[in-house]
Design brief:
Number of helices: 8
CATH topology of the largest domain: BirA Bifunctional Protein, domain 2
Radius of gyration: 22 Å
Number of strands: 14
Number of domains: 3
Helix content: 25-40%
Strand content: 25-35%
CATH superfamily of the largest domain: Bira Bifunctional Protein, Domain 2
Oligomer: single chain
CATH architecture of the largest domain: 2-Layer Sandwich
Strand order of the largest sheet: 3-4-5-9-8-7-6
CATH class of the largest domain: Alpha Beta
Largest sheet: 7 strands, mixed
Structural class: alpha+beta
Bound molecules: biotinyl-5-AMP
Amino acid sequence: MDRIREVLTYLRDKNDYVSGDYMSGTIGISRTAVWKYINHLERLGYRIEKLKGKGYRLAEAPDKLYPWEVERHVTATVLGKKIIYKDNLDSTNALAFRLALSGEPEGTCVIAETQKSGKGRLGRKWFSPAGKNLYMSVLLRPRIPPSAVYPITFLSSLAVYDTIETLVRVQPTLKWPNDVLIAGKKVCGTLLELSTEADMVRFVIVGIGLNINMKEDETEEEIRQKATSFFMEARKSFERTAVCGILLDNLERYYRIFREKGTDEICSIWERRANIKGKYLEITQMGESYRGISEGIDRDGAMLLVADGTVQKIIAGDVSF
Ligand code: BT5
């Protein structure tokens, strides 16, 4: 793959015709090899114009989340250093989990164009139409106790929040515990899965589903009224590789804050951004409903609700305002 990347880099940097001779000389491969790599790039969806006597010109790159395309937009040093790309998967979280068990390092990402069994929390489904959105799982190996894991969801939501502000230029909202909304509709959800020892986390998989170019008629009937995407909000398409790169940079920035300053800092950034304190909420958890005024987020990420003068701590659930 490295050679293909090299050929692609030459075509891209030149932004004009590059001769096969030139590439063969500078890369140090035969002209036949250059020709083979060009064919391979075409099979991957790149449109390459060929002109006798002048060589090859990159006319168009496909809308695919190929690792080498995402990497062009990443400046993070740990997250996204290794990207595993699949056209089709059951769930990026499931593969990332297996890879983590086999010792993959922190920062490894799994990205898929579509998921057959994309997972939400509590056995729910994540709709994953092909080639439109981002389905990504990031492997983290923080040295923390299991009780400090929950706020890692907030890192993801905050990173998505910033990415939306920068690219879509609208102000999203954060909904406890794991949603990012635009104009009241869900644009992103995060699913954490983890493996722990008795008092130490072995690894955490941060699964992020972010709707980017999905249109209304590509959305499942079941979520049509409550889901949105960058496209639906801005009425234009976004370069998914750039969205993914910016998101990884933002995620690394928050992960650094988390590692240096701990859950307190992350919870309070999330709490301020979500503007949750003093709001009247109803939270459903395992079929039970809790109502009250939010006192904010506890340092372990739980929601504090005040009702009838007593504070209740709610670990997980679904909020309605
Ligand atoms: C979540 O669960 O929001 C976590 C979603 C995490 C998905 C990512 S994709 C990459 C990685 N690999 C996986 O297999 N999963 C992760 P929850 O809070 O339970 O919300 C699920 C609910 O969101 C569903 O019941 C639907 O109502 C709604 N939903 C499903 N697909 C959606 C979509 N594409 N956009 C917006 N809402 C959706």
